[in-house]
Fold:
Amino acid sequence: MTRRQAIKTTALATAVAATAPQTFSQGQPPLVTGQPLITTSSPASAYPFVLPPLPYAVDALEPHIDAQTMEIHHGRHHKAYVDNLNKALASWPEYSTLKYHGNLEQNLRALDSFPENIRTAVRNNGGGHYNHSLFWQMMKKNGGGEPKAELAKAVESSFGNFSDFKTKFGEAAAKVFGSGWAWLIVTPDKRLEIVARPNQDTPISGTLNESRIERPRTEILLGLDVWEHAYYLKYQNKRADYIAAWWNVVNWDFVAERYAKLAK
Structure:
């Protein structure tokens, strides 16, 4: 290992320890390919929640996102969110009686109905699990390019053209202060909007009222993780370079499939 590599590895390990939830298992879980946890038809698995496998090899997104970053991001950070979410829910026995028990998406939509002492844990760790489970599927080997068909028309209708959309989305991601996400969402009136959220907050939260009656739903189409653990090993503090490279791995087929179902 060169001195430069040693410095980078040490710096990343320090960042992981300082920013991730402290429930890492000893060593990393095996990273295998397989069917992802969240699909366009089934948004969550049953409680207790589990870490989904990546839908591709850890080096599939090279050279834009490196294999070591993917190993740590998925196998440690995402796993920690899953472990901490299960721990928080296990501390509240009444959880098993809720009508949305075991449905992560409904948990997040009904976030305000959780007791205050575990609400933050569910927001942070449930959001982290949900966001990442979608994020892995929003990327693929040999991705990139532009959306097509109805999704392309929707992007043009909302933002003028794809180039302007990329600029606005990139600006939103670059301006996130600290850690967070940039999102392309479908609003309740079926428009596309770009929003940013801090930490692991997700745009779908808060769509049930105090009587647990569902309000019009905001849905996620595309998201970009701009926490430092998503890019620092390869790009250091150059978030703009990471954002520019990420467009080369976007899985527009997945996004288009979600749009076709969500825009109905």
Observations:
- The first strand starts at residue 180 and ends at 186.
- Residues 67-90 form the longest helix (24 residues).
- Confidence is low (pLDDT under 50) at residues 1-43.
- The two ends are 53 Å apart (CA to CA).
